[in-house]
């Protein structure tokens, strides 16, 4: 494929945590070196589940963008924008919704799953059912040929491919069918052993202080089968140890494993070591983020320029779409 364009977005639902740091941002950082990247704050997607709680979206966008910029997502290399500032997303979403069979949306494997997981919310809405159409619009309005996804997101991308294929069949060929750019991301566990998530209350946030980070690391679940300091431990059973592979050098990690299994080190001391490495690793990021936060208007400037550039590309696509549909 001669077109090396990538589109990826993130919902501004709150502060970013270590899961985002290793699962998304690290991948984006590498992709922007090789591809033409469009990274966006998916504020309209936030409305699919948070339509009754919109007060924090604007602040969340600013905080999220500071994290992106501090991590190294570069507006000189990538187009960074806000979804709602590019109205062509909504226009294409409307047109695609006219041709997308209802059965495609109802068979979406995460539709029922998300309804079950968010049972406290009323998600019996047109927007929630149709979010894969909006997602398809986000991707193909830029004629992206690759989409970075994990294995669990492949069904979503397949719906995008089907929608693009159906449009091309009904009218004329406008859209490439984007393919998956499979990304392997580390599974980052939260304080309680579940996947790290703001909604679970088990996250270590990037914007926290060193003291807050150390305190949270000290609260992590360890080897529940090691009730006493004098008992041998097993790192493979320890939730806290899952972070060691991301932050602690291999030589030091091997030393900790031997000491744990030999009951020569306790969980408290082990987590103190881990906390120090996490804090040291995040220190440059946090220092840069603080400097960026002190520059008034920076985020707004980046998003204004990025949204302008994105809209130019999207507008050209929509001219083709209108001509194909003859409207």
Per-chain topology:
Blueprint: E1 5-10, H1 18-34, E2 36-41, H2 43-50, H3 57-71, E3 79-82, H4 88-99, H5 102-106, H6 109-117, H7 126-129, H8 131-140, E4 146-149, H9 154-170, E5 179-182, H10 210-218, H11 241-247, H12 250-261, H13 267-293, H14 298-325
Helix pairs in contact: 3-13, 4-8, 4-14, 8-9, 10-13, 11-13
CATH architecture of the largest domain: 3-Layer(aba) Sandwich
Radius of gyration: 22 Å
* Number of continuous helical runs: 14
CATH topology of the largest domain: Rossmann fold
CATH class of the largest domain: Alpha Beta
Task: Give the tally of β-strands.
Answer: 5
Which class best fits the helix and strand makeup? mainly alpha
Give the strand order, joined by hyphens, for the main sheet: 1-2-3
The percentage of residues in β strands lies in 5-15%
**Uncertain parts:** none
Report the CATH superfamily of the largest domain: HUPs
**Termini Cα gap:** 30 Å
What is the number of independent domains?
A: 2
Give the overall form: elongated
Major sheet attributes: 3 strands, parallel
Mean pLDDT across every amino acid position: 92
Helix content: 55-70%
Describe the protein.
This protein is mainly alpha-helical and 327 residues long. The protein folds into 2 domains: 5-188 and 296-325, 3-Layer(aba) Sandwich (Rossmann fold); 208-290, Orthogonal Bundle (Tyrosyl-Transfer RNA Synthetase), CATH 1.10.240. It has 14 helices and 5 strands. The protein has helices spanning 18-34, 43-50, 57-71, 88-99, 102-106, 109-117, 126-129, 131-140, 154-170, 210-218, 241-247, 250-261, 267-293, 298-325, and strands spanning 5-10, 36-41, 79-82, 146-149, 179-182. A 3-stranded parallel beta sheet has the order 1-2-3. Strands 4-5 form a two-stranded parallel ribbon. Strand 4, helix 9 (154-170) and strand 5 form a beta-alpha-beta unit. The longest helix is centred in the C-terminal third of the chain and has 28 residues, at 298-325. It starts with a strand and ends with a helix. The model has no long low-confidence stretch (mean pLDDT 92).
């Amino acid at each position: 494929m001669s077109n090396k364009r990538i589109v990826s977005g993130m919902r501004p639902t709150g502060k970013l945590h270590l899961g985002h740091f290793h699962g998304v941002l690290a991948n984006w950082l590498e992709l922007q070196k090789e591809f033409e990247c469009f990274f966006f704050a998916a504020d309209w997607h936030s409305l699919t589940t948070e339509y009754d709680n919109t007060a924090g979206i604007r602040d969340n966008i600013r905080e999220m963008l500071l994290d992106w910029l501090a991590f190294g997502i570069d507006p000189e290399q990538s187009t960074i924008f806000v979804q709602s500032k590019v109205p062509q997303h909504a226009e294409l979403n409307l047109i695609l919704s006219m041709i997308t069979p209802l059965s495609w949306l109802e068979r979406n494997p995460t539709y029922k799953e998300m309804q079950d997981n968010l049972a406290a919310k009323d998600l019996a809405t047109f927007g929630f059912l149709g979010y894969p159409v909006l997602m398809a619009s986000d991707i193909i309005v830029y004629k992206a040929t690759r989409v970075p996804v994990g294995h669990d997101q492949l069904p979503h991308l397949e719906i995008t491919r089907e929608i693009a294929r159906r449009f091309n069949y009904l009218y004329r060929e406008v859209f490439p069918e984007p393919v998956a750019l499979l990304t392997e991301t580390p599974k980052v566990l939260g304080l309680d052993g579940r996947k790290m998530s703001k909604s679970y209350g088990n996250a270590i946030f990037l914007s926290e202080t060193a003291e807050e980070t150390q305190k949270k690391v000290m609260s992590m679940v360890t080897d529940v089968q090691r009730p006493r300091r004098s008992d041998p431990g097993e790192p493979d059973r320890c939730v806290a140890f899952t972070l060691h592979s991301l932050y602690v050098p291999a030589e030091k990690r091997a030393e900790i494993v031997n000491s744990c299994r030999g009951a020569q080190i306790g969980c408290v001391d082990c987590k103190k070591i881990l906390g120090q490495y996490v804090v040291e690793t995040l220190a440059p990021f946090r220092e840069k983020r603080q400097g960026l936060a002190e520059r008034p208007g920076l985020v707004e400037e980046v998003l204004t320029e990025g949204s302008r550039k994105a809209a130019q590309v999207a507008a050209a696509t929509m001219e083709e779409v209108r001509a194909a549909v003859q409207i």
